[in-house]
């Protein structure tokens, strides 16, 4: 494996030291430089030609978003954002992911640095190691951002005749690259789309803002899931960043439940927890695994498939990281794979009434059965 050259961009000497120390634990990563602001970073990029950048979301002299837009226009490269666990930090980070940042990691607390379990340094090393495997085309600045402003996306809304069976549910799991993949999937959904539950690996503060930002873009109503919330057609429920999301069936309806159990696959929320909660009604479920690092969701998807679920994975070419869908593919947990932009249509085609069924519904609702 070639040595990965990393440039650290952060105005805090303390944070730069923490990152440098964390990365020193990998024999395959070398910190080639440090910059206290984007202007210094710009010169060091030209001089040192790093493979990956770590970038503070809130920087002096030039804000992180402006710097990132300029970087993606002039010198596209993998960028890992260092963010604060605040509403402001969440907004800036989600905007950075829209622009083209590969991933983000929360700035560590003292407790996290001292914790014996999966630590900040291990997660950061994983993210940087994965970042250099991503196809360079994924870092190209989109045309919508060329003006320097993030413009709301709007998909071509697909038509949908209505769900074929009551309580039909779509369950989606995602991680690295998932915030943008989920948005691209949801923006083309009509307001009567099947109910959707989502587990995205994301911190608590971020999950609420993520749901709110999606709701601004979508015809469906997007929520951060709450405990006991009834699941309805035309609504999307996103797991809070500090709780496992599960689905229960009772009294003829589906409900969200939140649990504060241990991490599963190093994650809370975990996709496998969501998928396993639906085994009792698997034959009325479509499960989807989108881009993401790791293996979370693969085993749960396989169990759903064995019990009659339709299971879809995002294909490799359209995935930022083909980790989670790739693991599902390796164990044949999928019934089909598709490019990201085709997943929504497949979901609706499978869930919707056929033309003949729709005619029957219309006939039953017309006086004397006359259309």
Automatic annotation (TrEMBL):
Q: What is its main location?
A: cytoplasm
Keywords associated with the record? Chemotaxis, Cytoplasm, Hydrolase, Phosphoprotein
Instruction: Tell me which residues bear 4-aspartylphosphate.
Output: 56
Modifications the protein undergoes after translation, according to the UniProt entry = Phosphorylated by CheA. Phosphorylation of the N-terminal regulatory domain activates the methylesterase activity.
Pfam families the UniProt entry points to? CheB_methylest (PF01339), Response_reg (PF00072)
Quickly give the catalysed reaction.
Answer: L-glutaminyl-[protein] + H2O = L-glutamyl-[protein] + NH4(+); [protein]-L-glutamate 5-O-methyl ester + H2O = L-glutamyl-[protein] + methanol + H(+)
PROSITE patterns attached to this UniProt entry: CHEB, RESPONSE_REGULATORY
Locate the active site: 175, 201, 296
Q: Which residues form a coiled coil?
A: none
Q: Which residues form the CheB-type methylesterase domain?
A: 163-354
- Which Enzyme Commission number(s) are on file for it? 3.1.1.61, 3.5.1.44
Q: What class of enzyme is it?
A: hydrolase
Which InterPro entries does UniProt cross-reference here? CheB-like (IPR008248), CheB_C (IPR035909), CheY-like_superfamily (IPR011006), Sig_transdc_resp-reg_Me-estase (IPR000673), Sig_transdc_resp-reg_receiver (IPR001789)
Q: Where in the cell is it found?
A: Cytoplasm
Q: What does this protein do?
A: Involved in chemotaxis. Part of a chemotaxis signal transduction system that modulates chemotaxis in response to various stimuli. Catalyzes the demethylation of specific methylglutamate residues introduced into the chemoreceptors (methyl-accepting chemotaxis proteins or MCP) by CheR. Also mediates the irreversible deamidation of specific glutamine residues to glutamic acid.
Task: Output this protein's name.
Answer: Protein-glutamate methylesterase/protein-glutamine glutaminase
Organism of provenance: Colwellia marinimaniae
Coding gene?
A: cheB1
């Amino acid at each position: 494996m070639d040595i990965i050259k990393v440039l650290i961009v952060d105005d805090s000497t303390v944070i730069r030291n923490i990152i440098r120390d964390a990365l020193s634990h990998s024999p395959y990563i070398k910190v080639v430089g440090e910059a206290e602001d984007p202007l210094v970073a710009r010169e060091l990029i030209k001089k040192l030609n790093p493979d990956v950048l770590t970038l503070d979301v809130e920087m002096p002299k030039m804000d992180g978003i402006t710097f990132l837009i300029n970087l993606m226009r002039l010198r596209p490269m993998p960028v890992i954002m260092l963010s604060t666990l605040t509403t402001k930090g969440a907004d800036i980070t989600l905007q950075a992911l829209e622009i083209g940042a590969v991933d983000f990691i929360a700035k560590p607390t003292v407790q996290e640095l001292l914790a014996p379990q999966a630590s900040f340094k291990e997660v950061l090393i994983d993210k940087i190691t994965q970042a250099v495997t991503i196809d360079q085309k994924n870092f190209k600045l989109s045309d919508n951002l060329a003006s320097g402003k993030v413009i709301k996306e709007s998909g071509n809304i697909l038509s949908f005749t209505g769900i074929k069976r009551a309580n039909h549910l779509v369950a989606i799991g995602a991680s690295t690259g998932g915030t943008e993949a989920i948005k691209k999937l949801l923006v083309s959904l009509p307001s009567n789309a099947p109910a959707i539950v989502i587990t995205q690996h994301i911190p608590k503060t971020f999950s609420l803002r993520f749901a709110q930002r999606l709701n601004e873009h979508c015809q469906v109503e997007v929520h951060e899931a709450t405990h006991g919330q009834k699941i309805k057609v035309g609504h999307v429920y996103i797991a809070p960043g500090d709780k496992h999301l599960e689905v229960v069936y009772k009294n003829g309806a589906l409900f969200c439940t939140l649990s504060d159990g241990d991490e599963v696959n190093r994650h809370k929320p975990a996709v496998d927890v969501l998928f396993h909660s639906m085994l009792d009604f698997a034959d009325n479920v479509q499960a989807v695994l989108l881009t993401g690092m790791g293996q979370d969701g693969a085993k749960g998807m396989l169990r759903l498939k064995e019990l009659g679920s339709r299971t879809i994975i995002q294909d490799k070419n359209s995935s930022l990281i083909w980790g989670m869908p790739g693991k599902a593919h390796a164990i044949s947990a999928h019934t089909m794979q598709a490019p990201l932009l085709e997943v929504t249509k497949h979901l609706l085609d499978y869930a919707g009434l056929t033309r003949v069924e729709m005619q029957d519904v219309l006939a039953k609702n017309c006086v004397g059965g006359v259309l």
